[in-house]
Amino acid sequence: MNTLNHILKLLAEKRGFDFSGYRRPMLERRTQKRMFKTNCGKPAEYLEYLQNNTEELDELIDAFTINVSNFFRNPLVFEYLERIVLHTIINSITLKKDELLRIWSAGCSRGEEAYSIAMAVNEFLKKEKTALDTIIFATDIDKKALSKGRSGVYDKQSLYNLKLGMAESYFKEESGKYIIDDELKKTVKFSFFNLLDINHIFPPESIYGSFDMVFCRNVLIYFERESQGVIFDKLYKSLKINGFLILGEAELPPTELKGKFRRESKCCKIYKKIA
Ligand SMILES: C[S@@+](CC[C@H](N)C(=O)[O-])C[C@H]1O[C@@H](n2cnc3c(N)ncnc32)[C@H](O)[C@@H]1O
């Protein structure tokens, strides 16, 4: 077994995280960065360091889970959402008298994506002079990121894609920090959920899945094909028929799901579940 496998085994034993389905080159690069930070010249030296310094296990998990994000990341996606997707969904919900809009942000990091969705939905409903209860389940495996999301406190840098007036409408500024509005916060429910969990298809907090939209952006790129397949299967099963799957710029549904999803937009990775 090479040293990276020993490291992954240690993370699984000590922290319960199984990174074996993640892309090896990414794991190797991130491990090398931590080796450099901890002045370990050789992988075996770093493994020994990890065995004797348990706080480094958390640093390595942080390095592997990469939670870069910002509000309205890839603004075109949110533009398309407000102009097209929400119209389609809201028409079908109103027709069915089914009055709850259910959304899942899978791999939500610190909540920037989930709160951006909440803002986009709110802006849309305001414009349409319509009321509709909305619930957004925001899940991740990074507990620190989840607690940051629950706190709803952000730095100015993460807000640079916000449209004019949105910072004032949805945040309160205190000593240079931006705090999410309480009403908006109530629509987002954060919880721990491992997308590779073999026992659950969707977050148990959502009780029955059946989402109108599932966002899983910039998460699948970190996984090997087989694990991507496991995740796509969950995303597919969690969506309502005619629900929307929103992926990151570099992500595509696997060929096995061809015929189940139809791409809806030329500019963004937005798919409709059609079968
Ligand atoms: C780059 S962030 C993407 C954040 C957001 N979706 C966006 O596009 O801005 C990737 C997130 O995926 C999460 N992640 C990695 N492996 C995961 C897993 N097995 N289950 C759930 N989330 C995972 C990481 O913790 C991280 O917060």
Explain this structure to me?
The strands form two sheets. This protein has a seven-stranded mixed β-sheet. Strands 3-5-4 form a three-stranded antiparallel β-sheet. It starts with a helix and ends with a strand. The longest helix is centred in the N-terminal third of the chain and has 22 residues. The protein folds into two domains: 63 residues; 199 residues, Rossmann fold. α2 packs across α4 and α3 crosses α4. The chain has ten helices and ten strands. The site of S-adenosylmethionine (SAM) has 21 residues, from loops. S-adenosylmethionine binds next to loops.
Small molecules bound = S-adenosylmethionine
Averaging pLDDT over every residue, what do you get? Answer: 95
Strand fraction band? 15-25%
Q: Structural class of the helix and strand makeup?
A: alpha/beta
Strand arrangement in the largest pleated sheet: 6-2-1-7-8-10-9
Count the domains.
2
CATH topology term of the largest domain: Rossmann fold
Helix content: 40-55%
Oligomer: single chain
SSE order, as H and E?
HHHHHEHEHEHEEHEEHEEE
CATH class of the largest domain: Alpha Beta
